[in-house]
Specification:
This protein has about 400 residues and is of the alpha+beta class. Helix content is about 20%, strand content about 25%. The strands form six sheets. A four-stranded antiparallel β-sheet has the order 14-15-12-16, with helices on one face. Helix 1 runs parallel beside helix 5. The protein is elongated and about 70 Å long. It starts with a helix and ends in a 20-residue tail after the last helix.
Length: about 400
């Protein structure tokens, strides 16, 4: 029930060979649609994302889906600017700072000029500004609204959502192919027969298929804020330094995503996320992920120290999630995802998308539907993502 599974269900039910009279498509979800990182990610779309074999297709497909289904209104799809910025924090709990927009003794003349419509950062706070994306190659969605809508659109074409926790993949003799999946629902054990099973369980995938080579998943904390006014569409990747007076020490540098209204919130919001941590083991399901509220508070303190509308806003969500990561990697290093056949007839994998799960979901869903129905992907060359490059068999 994450974005990869829901996207695949959507494209399976739109494939030319799909016939609802003879084909059944099920989304088996342990808790709720988009209960994990699919509902708690930032939702950045970038044509330049990794992997290069999939990202451009997926970026294009995002735009096509939004145009076809009203994504601008339903899931907040829009084009954005992106920038790497160095920001000087200010202590807005200081009355003089609030009155003047600057701390006493703060030198506004040392600040860097920024686009005129990026008017929601504190005056003089920007020390450097480097454009990293434009509306031609960058965009955003609200991941929760996007994933929920894909599931609903798949259901409208005949797919069915089952709320139940998968416990095992069942195989034919000598693991020659799959036969069914076992799951529990309200304490009752059940079996769902299948000709094809796509494992797209994010960081939980190895629990069902241990050969999947995923590392210990990182946990990330984020907040959603209702700002005191609407913010222009600039996604920022900041390096925030503490005020010169020594207050607000040990500030984080969270990513900042202003969002338009959508089906989740009928008003503009701001999403901000802090750094990953590897301290807490993966729980049994998305609904048992623990939220460390002080980490969320640290995220809000940091973003509120560089923007008055955010500082004056209201935190409406504190949340945490785990990403399916093959291994830690450099920013532009290509590591997965894992997409394609496992070598066991009827068993497919789509996992390990790491920070680009929302961005690459439509492309993944499209090529998976082609693999399942046609036997091969046509829309993109995904050979480098083939599970044979990643699986580790005992």
């Amino acid at each position: 029930g994450g974005v990869i599974g829901c996207s695949t269900a959507y494209f399976l039910t739109r494939h030319g060979l799909y016939n609802p009279r003879i084909h059944s498509v099920f989304i088996l979800e342990a808790s709720k649609i988009a209960g994990g990182s699919s509902g708690k990610a930032g939702g950045l779309l970038a044509e330049s994302a990794t992997p290069k074999c999939l990202a451009p297709l997926s970026f294009k497909t995002h735009g096509e889906l939004a145009k076809k289904h009203g994504g601008d209104k339903i899931w907040g799809h829009r084009s954005v600017y992106c920038a790497d910025v160095a920001l000087q924090a200010q202590d807005l709990n200081n009355e003089a700072a609030i009155a003047n927009g600057l701390e006493d003794g703060y030198d506004e003349s040392s600040a860097t000029k920024v686009p005129s419509d990026l008017d929601w950062l504190l005056p003089g706070s920007v020390k450097s500004y480097t454009e990293a994306g434009t509306p031609n190659n960058s965009g955003q969605v609200n991941p929760l609204a996007f994933t929920e809508t894909l599931a609903q659109l798949a259901k409208e074409k005949g797919a069915e959502v089952i709320i139940g926790s998968a416990t095992a993949i069942n195989y034919r003799d000598k693991n020659s192919g799959i036969s069914s999946v076992s799951y529990t629902q309200n304490g009752t054990s059940k079996i769902l027969n299948a000709t094809d099973i796509l494992l797209a369980a994010g960081p939980w995938t190895p629990k069902l298929f241990p050969a999947t080579n995923l590392g210990h998943p990182p946990r990330g904390h984020s907040v959603v804020v209702r700002p005191s006014r609407d913010l222009s569409p600039y996604v920022l990747f900041p390096n925030i330094s503490a005020p010169e007076n020594g207050s607000l020490s040990n500030l984080l540098s969270p990513e900042i995503y202003p969002r338009p209204g959508d089906k989740i919130h009928n008003f503009d919001t701001v999403y901000a996320c802090g750094p990953d941590d590897y301290e807490v083991p993966l729980p049994d399901s998305t609904d048992t992920v623990t939220v460390d509220e002080p980490r969320c508070d640290d995220v809000y303190t940091a973003v509120g120290s560089v923007s008055k509308p955010i500082h004056e806003g209201e935190v409406i969500t504190k949340q945490a999630c785990y990403k399916p990561q093959i291994r830690p990697h450099e920013e532009d290093e290509e590591v997965g995802p894992i997409v394609g056949p496992t070598g066991i007839q009827g068993l497919w994998l789509a996992t390990g998308h790491d920070e680009w799960g929302i961005q690459n979901a439509p492309g993944t869903g499209l090529v998976m539907s082609e693999m399942i129905f046609d036997g091969a992907a046509h829309s993109a060359d995904c050979e480098s993502l083939d599970p044979k490059h990643f699986l580790k068999w005992d």
